[in-house]
Amino acid sequence: MEPQKRLRRGIIILASIIAAGTIGYMLIEGWSPTEAIYMTMITISTVGYGEVHPLSEAGRIFSIILIVGGVSGALFVFSALVEYVIEGRLGIARRKRHMKAKIAQLKDHFILCGYGRVGEEIARTFSEEGVPFVVIDSRPDNIALAEEQGYLCLLGDATSDKVLLEAGIERARALVAAVGSDADNTYIVLSARGLRPDLLIEARASAREAEAKLKMAGANRIVAPNSIGARRMALLAIRPTVADFIDTVSFRRGRELQMENIVVPDSSPLIGQTAASIRQRSRANILAINRKSGKLLTNPADEESIELGDRLIIMGTAEQLTTLESLCEGEKCR
Fold this sequence. Notes:
Largest sheet: 6 strands, parallel
Structural class: alpha/beta
Shape: elongated
Strand content: 5-15%
CATH superfamily of the largest domain: NAD(P)-binding Rossmann-like Domain
Oligomer: single chain
CATH topology of the largest domain: Rossmann fold
């Protein structure tokens, strides 16, 4: 039986014994409810106080039965309580070990720092997209919410190198700093950049003046949720059909059309091929080519050739994207 159920059952049994003892003394000895419950409590607890009134023969026999049943019930409750406390602590420790073991196995994952309103939405999107990630937050309530959703999470300060290492930053694909404080996000970026100079870091900025500081700290991308929300509302008002289309290809699961970005590794047969050839082989549409140099080619011409390190922004069906991704060899496409 589970410790919680055992404790609940023990409390019910003990309460029933106390109620039975009180009623018994009232019926046998004719005592008042206060006298009866007092006598029941001192009998069960065996504290050795004197009797409220001299007991009759039947009262003494009833007291003997009450002592045996009451002491047994009290011991049952005490043992169940001890088991509940110990099992609870062991259970928490066991869950923590299990969580850490899972996090230690993560590779090419995302680290999400902060599980507030913004962090919760980011985590939901990560989960819907099927990408591995771990949540870091210093507030136990937020970690409890993340655990309820089945996310891997760590309770700790994301500005700490130790916590970031525990989250597997040396194996991570990217880090998202999404706590509510710009100062905390800046410290997180500094810590992460010090541990992983090559890591992709995205940071949340609540104030405009924080964006420059986050950039200096080492953030690759800075997102201001308020500004994005405002632009989004404006786009919905001005071009609602365009906004709906972007939502369809970007966020809705089970969608017919999807967008993806693919990195061309050095072992890929895509290198040297033209955009027209890739379109013909995969049937996917190449929306843009982001050169390794940083140059962005939108709607590339058919004769544009693919180079090492290019990032292809693709749109197509899931089958078409899978076909195109299968052309990549060696390093994992992202």
